[in-house]
Design a protein that fits this description.
By secondary structure, the protein is α/β, with parallel strands linked by helices. The protein has eleven helices and eleven strands. The longest helix has 28 residues. It is elongated and about 75 Å long. The two termini are 29 Å apart.
Length: 294
């Protein structure tokens, strides 16, 4: 009879859709993982997976087996993880934008027993780190449909075009003015990265095209950008949460308001397979205010 490790390997491959990713997740070699699947296929007498050029997909027999055994495997994993979390100092590896992690997430998880190992990166790198098991939880400003990754929306923010209080724009610059785009192109732009993350989204939704902008300054720190804006060194697009104090005290002002509000969503992401890990799920629960049921 196939042992429990074979079923664990089967579930990992099923959820991650990749033998290599499942092997990294289980800290095993690919041949060892493949041996587990081969042994399980011999036991049940059915082919459980078929490989394509990009993924390892379950057969109908594989789907049927998963429905029958996944809950039992998860329960056994959860029991084991529960004992481990009581005897160790659990560490959560968290990645995301430094400003959002610092200003929002740290307040939400205060008092939890987990130790935090925090890194900062862009969305694409965060997704890759999650898939490879280098991160447990990631905060992202973009939703990406990735097999094996669960996204939970944390917040919805409004993007605002802002500059120093003394910024002067042409008279008659209104919501439907034909010279809006041309006038904005000639301003000194400050961006978080060369990809113009917030600026690009704002420009595309406001004007229906990619921004033809070359930022005067690129610096990956929102706090420094805010300081530069207040000092009159340029303009930028930022979320309302980032600049609510500056807008309130008049050190920054909104330069132009599009007809339809332009919003951006912030997401928390974790691996499907980690739903059985109570340490990670309690952290997710605190971040999202979504109860986790064991």
């Amino acid at each position: 009879m196939a042992d429990f490790e074979c079923y664990r390997s089967f579930v990992s491959i099923y959820r991650l859709r990749s033998i290599s990713a499942a092997a990294k997740f289980r800290f095993m070699t690919q041949p060892a993982l493949t041996h587990h699947v081969t042994a399980l296929e011999a036991e049940v007498g059915e082919v459980l997976f078929q490989r394509t050029s990009r993924q390892t997909l379950p057969t109908e027999q594989g789907k049927m087996l998963y429905r029958q055994i996944s809950r039992a495997v998860d329960q056994l994993e959860r029991i084991t993880a529960g004992f481990q979390s009581q005897s160790e100092h659990p560490v959560i590896r968290l990645g995301g934008p430094r400003e959002y992690v610092y200003e929002s997430i740290m307040n939400r998880v205060e008092g939890l027993p987990q130790h935090l190992n925090i890194s900062f990166n862009e969305t694409t790198e965060l997704v890759d780190s999650l898939k490879l098991g280098h991160l447990d939880v990631a905060i992202m400003t973009t939703y990406i449909d990735v097999p094996g990754i669960i996204f939970v929306r944390l917040s919805k923010e409004t993007l605002r075009l802002v500059g120093p209080a003394n910024t002067e724009l042409p008279d008659g610059l209104g919501e439907s003015s034909s010279n809006v785009k041309e006038s904005l192109e000639h301003l000194d732009w400050i961006s978080y990265s060369s990809e113009l993350p917030f600026i690009r989204k704002f420009w595309i939704e406001a004007f229906g095209e990619c921004p033809p902008l070359l930022p005067r300054v690129i610096i990956p720190d929102i706090r420094i950008i805010k300081s530069m804006l207040v000092q009159g060194k340029g303009v930028s697009v930022m979320t309302d949460d980032m600049i609510k104090v500056e807008l309130s005290n008049g050190s920054l002002k909104e330069l132009w308001v599009p007809t339809n509000p332009i919003t951006n969503e912030v997401w928390l992401a974790y691996r499907t397979i980690d739903q059985i890990n109570p340490t990670i799920m309690k952290f997710v629960e605190r971040c999202t205010c979504t109860p986790f049921s064991t």
